[in-house]
Known about the structure:
The complex is a heterodimer of chains A (233) and B (228).
Chain A: E1 6-16, E2 19-30, E3 33-38, H1 45-52, E4 60-65, H2 73-76, E5 79-82, H3 94-104, H4 110-120, H5 136-148, E6 154-158, H6 166-181, E7 185-190, H7 193-196, E8 202-207, E9 210-215, H8 218-232
Parallel strand pairs in A: 3-7, 3-8, 5-6, 6-7
Antiparallel strand pairs in A: 1-2, 1-4, 8-9
Chain B: H1 3-22, H2 24-44, E1 45-46, E2 49-50, H3 54-80, H4 83-89, H5 94-123, H6 133-157, H7 164-191, H8 197-226
Antiparallel strand pairs in B: 1-2
Helix pairs in contact in B: 1-5, 2-3, 2-5, 3-5, 3-6, 3-7, 5-6, 5-8, 6-7, 6-8, 7-8
Amino acid sequence: MIDFEELAVEDVSRHFGRRKALSKITFTARAGSILGLLGPNGAGKSTLLAILGTLLLPTSGRVRYGTHADASADLRARIGMLGHDLYLYPELTARENLAFFAALYGDADPGGAADRALARASLAERANDPVASFSRGMRQRVALERALIHGPRLLLLDEPFTGLDEASVAALLARLRDLKTQGAIVVLATHDLDVAEGLFDRAVFIRDGRMMEAVTGSEALRATYRAVMTKAK
Amino acid sequence: MSGFLRVAWIVLRKDLTVEVRSREVVYTTLFFAVSCVLVFAFALVKEGRALEDAAAGILWIAIAFAGTLALGRTFERERQSETLRALLLAPADRPAIYVGKLAGIVALLLAAEAILVPLIALLFQAAGLLAQPLWLIAVLVTGTLGYCAVGTLFAAMLVRARSRDVLLPVLLYPITIPVIIAGVRGTAALLEPAPDLPMVRFWVSLLVAFDAVFITLALWTFEPLMTE
């Protein structure tokens, strides 16, 4: 199994026909850190996450996962992704969803992996209920466990706070801090800094597909966020 | 079980479980296919006598139309929650995912055909359809497999296209014409007063060749086509 300690995005551009969705994005993220990908809606954050998740090829530039750059199956085994949509089958129960993905990732005991994931999400009692009957917050918790079921090194999150109440946001933030402590590289895209305040070790700002700035420190982060979002309006 | 077959089986089992819960694709496909057969029966059966050789053509028209519906709905399900992305993100062989989806659609269509065949035999006085059941199964399985092999690839490719419902039949029908022709001719040979088995064998062999070509091409192109 391959592993990596650093994610390096080097001059990544992506064009859809004549439209430039991303233009020369460059940054790095280390294991045990949370990187924020901030910018207004339509800035190119989801496109960048799809490239980091090997679902989309960059038009130019490259992404390095430690020493690895080819989107092999072994590399995909180290990446977890939680998109704006939750990647769950509403007709299946929470346990069936998690067991399906655990089996797909080659887990020898997918049922056991699903049970442990449901316990972590405090959803063991609803294990056999269809996901369609869950609230948005509960679905989000199942979806996060789906993204983590194979113990990925790199976790990509796209607007994970959308539609969550305060308690669910707090639970998600606590889980992300745990993952950071365990050595994961977390890349979280959001247009809403308020809910993620204090979470990021570093933030990269994107607007109209261009990288505006990479900042550390909460005051600089807040000031840059205000400036970028104001210009976007 | 090899990793490839294991992944295909996991995807197939998931698709069948989802279908057993929702029964959406099997009911809509069956309803559409039966409606199609009934319309043709009203048009082509006069005073209790069916048009000669119509049964084979109508069977394959119903399979082609219902198949398009099943292909579209199966992948629409993967699009709604973007689960196709999660499948592609898994470290599994992507062609194995294709094989799992293909097997699920073939199973659904064969289930629909199990009801269509006796219905057509009854409405079009085509008892010959049931006279050589093994040869009929051979024609149906190889024809359905060839049709779905191309259809599954196109449906997966078009899953994010805005006009996918229009594009799927526009792309699928011209390419699968050889499969439909072979299916119709093979079935028609079974319907002759004395079934022309050498001719049935010829068309089944041709269908097997089509299947081999279509499945090989699909396995070869699925991964690059699905990586946007």
